[in-house]
Every structure is written in C-alpha cells, then in structure tokens.
From TrEMBL:
Enzyme class, broadest EC rank: transferase
Family assignment from sequence similarity: Belongs to the AB hydrolase superfamily. MetX family.
Recorded name of the encoding gene: metX
Keyword Transferase: yes
Protein name: Homoserine O-succinyltransferase
Reaction(s) this enzyme catalyzes, per UniProt: L-homoserine + succinyl-CoA = O-succinyl-L-homoserine + CoA
C-alpha cells in the first residue's frame, strides 16, 4: 500500500508545545498546552501553498496516509498525490483540536497546575478557541496565509470561523456538509447522547480515570445515537432493511434481532474502546455553542461582513443533520456581502456521512476548485 503512487505512505505525527497562555471564550485560560499535527506535501518557496484541514467530532490530525500503527487517515480519499486536494501541489496540515483524545492536550492529560489528570476539570473549548490555537501553530510553522482552510461537518464550522476570525489569513474557505449553527433538533440529539454518558455509573462525575473505570455503556449509546443521525433513511434501508440477523424469525426478547441493531452495537462498542468520554462531552458542547451570528442579533450576513476569502460550499441532498438549507443560508449571506461563492448540492443517498465517501461528482467539484487555487500559486 505504501508504494502506491496515490498514497502518502507512512506519516509520522508531530507535536508542538505552547507555553503562552491561551484565553478561552469561556473566560478560562489554558496556560500550557500541546498540539499534535501532521503535514503532507512540501511547502513551496513562496510559502503560499499551505492548506489547513479541520477535523470533525471523532476524527483527528491524521487526515491522510498511514499512521505508524497502520491506520489510514480519515480523509485519505480526499488528500494525497493526485487526489482532489493534491499533495503534489499543496502543503497540507492536519491539527488535532484541543480537548481531543488523540494527542493534543485534553481531559486525559495532566493539569500542570495540580499535577492531576484534568478529567472533568478541563475547561470548555469552543470552535473559536480551536481556531485561535490553530492560528498560533500556523505562525509557528512560518505560514502567513493559508491557500485554503477546509473542513466537513464540525470541521466546516472551523473553516467558516477562520474566515470570520482571521479574514486575512486565508484566501479560500471550503465548507462541506456543515452549518452556521445547530438546529434545536441537533442540540437535542447531542444532549441525549451526553446524558447517556453523564448517567453512566462508571462516569464518576468525569473523574473515572481515578477510579480505574470507563463509562463504556454511556459512550456506546452516545455513539449509537450519533451514528443514526449520520445516515439517511434510504441508506439504512438499502444496507440493512428489516433483515434479521442469524435467525429466520423474531427472538421475542431484547437481544439483537435485526441487522441494523447489530451494526449500531458494533459501532458503539468500537467507539467506546478508543474515544474519551470527557472529550465527547466537550466537543458536542462546542458544536452546540457555535453560532457566529449570535453577536449580530442573529444576522449571519452581518457576521460575515468582514470576511475576505472566496468560498466553496457543498451539501448533500439526504443530509438531514446538516441539511442543504443550512448551506444555502451561508451562500445567501455571503452573496449579500458580495463574496465570491461556488455552491454544489450533491444528490447523494448516504446522508451526512457522504462527505467522507467516494462520490465522483463531489470529488470532482473539490478537485476543480483546488485546481483553480493551484493556478493562483506563485
């Protein structure tokens, strides 16, 4: 696999420590922290070909290539040699968000002020806090402006926040399967998932590390709830329908009768084995809090008035979690500000997860857009 011309091969993550305090939106301060990141491709002499990829809820800095342990990057079909975001042309950076459980400072790390694991004491972080931390790493890498900042889902929120918070720091903003704010329904799903964790007896108020336990049951249910929202009804029907698992008739019990039940439990068990419960709580709250128009009396066009970037916004027809209507809302607000916007609404059956999959129409849109960016490089 590592010898193929369209793969980056084995990629080693890097870390960078920051000892200058980072003020957070909550009023708290993170005084010492580390960010884990990966880079792909080569920064050109003009240093104008850098692209930042922002990750979604359960992803990380490992965007593409193969990790030393053999894991393939979560967006490996998008980023790499000859791929839509072509690392033969671009220097791509993936950064793990603060509060995560994949290397950057988070609840699983020691609090330098107490010498104990943060656990539930890790401060709340927002999308804007992540962007501020990413901005510091950008400067440390000697990059003065991104050719593009790109993300899907929660990553798309970060890309949008970049264009608002640091308008001169990016030339293009690529927002895929995202939204300018969560609907009440989305917040409700997140809260139900959080309650599953918070009420797990093994959670111990977020300090389960000290008790030698893991709130696996809560994490398992939280993931099952989340996963339902990532898929469309049509996709579920095609993949699973009402097929029974390993039987010809109902079991008349509370075990696993249907294939969809088996699939969700598998996803839940897998997630509980690698994800941190406090991280899940933090990230879903960051999702809930994101609303750049809040400071402008709900007027998104006013929130975007200071932006300077050009935009590609893409949505998927069956994504009911972050529906096309929310993407159109962003487009309309940008057009009102006379920004240059390309919009693609892909008729895809896979629901929210479509942004991670191999859809030729979707990938061709991204490929063409980045080819255009490449033509602007020095």
């Amino acid at each position: 696999m590592t010898d193929s011309s369209d793969t980056l091969g084995v990629v080693t993550p890097q870390t960078m420590n920051f000892d200058v305090a980072l003020p957070l939106q909550s009023g708290a301060v993170l005084r010492d922290y580390t960010l884990m990141y990966e880079t792909y491709g080569t920064l050109n002499a003009a240093r104008d070909n850098a692209v930042l990829i922002c990750h979604a809820l359960n992803a990380s800095h490992h965007v593409a290539g193969v990790s030393p342990s053999g894991d393939v990057g979560w967006w490996d079909n998008m980023v790499g040699p000859g791929k839509p975001v072509d690392t033969n042309r671009f220097f791509v950076v993936g950064i793990n968000n603060l509060g995560s459980c994949f290397g950057s400072t988070g609840p699983m790390h020691l609090n330098p002020e107490t010498g104990k694991i943060y656990g539930a004491d890790f401060p709340f972080v927002t999308v804007e806090d992540w962007v501020d931390a990413q901005y510091r790493l950008m400067n440390a890498l000697g990059i003065s402006q991104w050719a593009a900042v790109m993300g899907g889902s929660l990553g798309g929120m970060q890309a949008l926040a970049w264009s608002i918070r640091y308008p001169a720091a990016l030339r293009h903003c690529v927002v895929i399967a995202s939204t300018p704010k969560l609907s009440a329904q989305n917040i409700a799903f997140n809260d139900v998932a959080r309650q599953a964790i918070l009420t797990d007896p093994d959670f111990h108020g977020g300090h389960f590390y000290e008790h030698g336990t893991l709130p696996r049951r809560g994490l398992r249910v939280a993931r099952m709830i989340g996963h339902i929202t990532y898929l469309s009804d049509d996709d579920m029907a095609e993949k699973f329908g009402r097929d029974l698992r390993e039987r010809d008739d109902y079991g008349f019990g509370y075990g696993v009768d249907f294939e969809i039940e088996s699939y969700l439990r598998y996803q839940g068990d897998k997630f509980a084995d690698y994800f941190d419960a406090n991280t899940y709580l933090l990230i879903t709250k960051a999702l809930d809090y994101f609303d750049p128009a809040r400071l402008f009396e709900g007027d998104l066009s006013r929130a975007l008035a200071s932006t300077q970037a050009q935009y590609l916004i893409a949505s998927f027809s069956t994504d009911w979690r972050f529906s096309p209507e929310r993407s159109r809302e962003m487009v309309q607000a940008l057009v009102k500000n006379r920004r240059t916007v390309s919009y693609a609404e892909i008729d895809a059956k896979h629901g929210h997860d479509a942004f991670l999959l191999n859809d030729p129409r979707y990938h061709n849109v991204v490929r063409a857009y980045f080819a255009r960016i490449s033509g602007e490089l020095s």
